[in-house]
Design brief:
71% helix, 11 helices, mainly alpha
Length: 314
């Protein structure tokens, strides 16, 4: 428990420094600043693999799957890369949500901060639920495998993500439950006018982002559980990827049109982990092969996107 408490405390410190110190004042996140923050979060996440090695080598954390320290590090990095790669679609949807509700760039970071905070809580609950299901019902791993293959198939068939936030069920129910306003009140989520307290577009965007993130977690968490069922590895790799999602959004959202083949990389990753889940009882795939395939898939998607120019329609 001390290790878990220490890790969660570290995350709280990171978040407090982010909003309370480095981003205390609202401002537009430029590409250069987003690049520096993305590099910092990736460095922190990969450096944490050294902490993972130390914890497992010293036996300071529960090790129900009896992993060696080296295997724990490989599984952590693999889980981190899976969550990071699957977040690319999440970035696209966030950009659509901000555009639909006309959220000014100067306030987008604050919305994402609270969105990430809520995502950490929901991911923790979903990871706990998923691991409990796998430990209690062996057959559930096949359900996860089929679900990931189906998701990969849908992603392969669709040329682009079609998402209209204002037609989402979350927005429709929120509009019925609570007064909404189109007026902005700085970075505040609520505004009071004529004695009525109403939610601003910032709060509406926050709720829609939270609920869509839960939907994306239905893909990413089973994918990480295909690599390992160790609770601390799954949780820490997932949370470390989420922490860097904000800076990655401001960096990647402006370059989404350039990464045209990343979608196929995600199809390969989801298809692989889905098949791995279905064949887990018969075929054991070493962790380093999973890591290598994920790295090659992502690298190939990026390289092909840069080398192959998009044909201009007549």
């Amino acid at each position: 428990m001390l290790v878990w408490i220490a890790f969660i405390t570290l995350i709280i410190i990171f978040l407090a420094l982010d909003l309370g110190v480095f981003n205390k004042h609202d401002h537009v996140i430029r590409s250069k600043e987003a690049s520096l923050w993305t590099a910092l979060w990736v460095t922190v996440a990969l450096s944490f693999s050294g902490v993972i090695y130390w914890l497992f080598s010293e036996g300071l954390v529960d090790n129900p799957t009896q992993m060696t320290p080296n295997a724990a590090v490989i599984n952590y990095i693999t889980g981190y890369l899976i969550e990071l790669s699957l977040s690319i679609d999440n970035v696209f949807v966030i950009a659509v949500i901000f555009s639909a509700f006309s959220i000014p760039p100067i306030y987008q970071h604050r919305v994402l901060f609270w969105g990430i905070l809520g995502a950490i809580v929901f991911r923790a609950l979903m990871i706990l639920f998923g691991i409990t299901l796998i430990n209690r019902f062996d057959w559930i791993i096949y359900v996860f495998g089929v679900f990931l293959l189906y998701t990969a198939y849908k992603m392969f068939k669709s040329e682009s993500i079609k998402f209209d936030p204002k037609n989402a069920l979350a927005f429709k129910y929120l509009r019925k439950l609570y007064p909404l306003t189109t007026h902005m009140n700085g970075h505040h989520f609520f505004i009071r006018r004529m004695g009525i307290k109403a939610a601003t577009p910032l709060f509406v965007a926050l709720i829609v982002i939270e609920l869509t993130d839960i939907m994306f977690a239905l893909d990413s968490i089973p994918a990480i559980l295909a690599i390992t069922a160790d609770p601390f590895i799954v949780f820490s790799s997932n949370i470390m990827a989420i922490l860097g999602l904000r800076s990655m959004y401001f960096l990647v959202s402006r370059m989404l049109s350039k990464f045209r083949f990343i979608n196929y990389s995600l199809v390969v990753i989801l298809g692989f982990v889905g098949l791995k889940m279905l064949a887990a009882e018969y075929v054991h795939i070493p962790s380093w092969i999973s890591l290598l395939l994920i790295v090659v898939s992502l690298s190939s998607g990026i390289i092909f996107s840069m080398l192959i120019s998009e044909k201009t329609p007549k």
